[in-house]
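Human:
Take a look at this sequence-structure pair and walk me through the tokens.
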Amino acid sequence: MTTPYKDGFYMPAEYAPHCATIMIWCERAGSWTHGASFAEPAFAEAIKAISEGEKVFVAVSEKSRPRAIKYLAEEILKGSVELLDIDTDDCWARDTAPTFVTDGTEVCGVDWKFNAWGGQFNGLYDDYVRDDAFAQTVCEKLGLKCYSARPFVLEGGSVHSNGKGTVITTEECLLSKGRNPEKSKLEIEDILKEYLGAERVVWLPYGVMDDETDGHVDNICAFVNENTVVLGWCEAYDEQRRRCEENLKVLLNAGIEVIKLPFPEKPVRFTDFDLAGFEYGEGEIVRSKDENLAASYVNFYISNSAVIVPAFGDVNDQIAVEILSRCFPERRVISINATEVIKGGGNFHCLTCQIPKKGIER
């Protein structure tokens, strides 16, 4: 049985050229308060910004199609946005879409098993059949070959690649009992290398505290060039600061340069109004006012022409923009209010998945 690594395929860096981005329109009543009406403007703003530099495929259901058209009619007419009729359980394309790999002339997808961030151990909802099928369906719709990595469980937000042989992930997530508890750390590392075309895996100990994904790397650390990352950083010395320092040690020992990117200063939490707008399905986690949402500026998305950065109405919003503008001088850094997005459980990087351009040289 062949694998991407054996066939000469690898996962490019996100900042390498894309041919398109995949997203899913929001509608799940247990994730998006008040029928997603407050989150939709942020979705639309992000899609429009990304579509200025590349095509955006947006998966919709029969119910959400009219809502997407309402916000994206102009882009659909221009052809910079195309709707795909695919039913899903939620809209986290980073975690349910294929992980795309290339050999420089062809692009293929990798289909991992999806279990709603933990399955029976600590998954967020019980029925995830449509999300689990999304990667294979996308490849079929786009006419792309798809490697199956099943039954290995992995979400796209748990890995980042520099496109030059290095992948970063977190022990907190990939060694979780809700992923692949029957496999050792070394066995998991070997699978990542085979299906992402990597030569080494750098294991950070931790993700962001209170992250319901069990600490996805895309909320704490991301490559900005081949040998440099931004790392979420907490100035106040608390448990999150301790986690950041442990991650910093690992990165420096791996020979990776680090730029510290602060977290929002103020916590983001649900309001009573938010909580009144959820409708939960069977087996779905119930939100509470005391939850500390895992807001992070590291959950940005690098498109061909822009970097889409979450904003939270926080004093550090502009600092994050300034730091990322220095990291990506050739791209426009666009700050979009993401307060309603984080209430769904993630942010702009979680909502997006890049399809690399053919002909990329490693």
Notes: DSSP finds twelve helices and 16 strands in the chain. The radius of gyration is 19 Å. The longest strand covers residues 146-153.
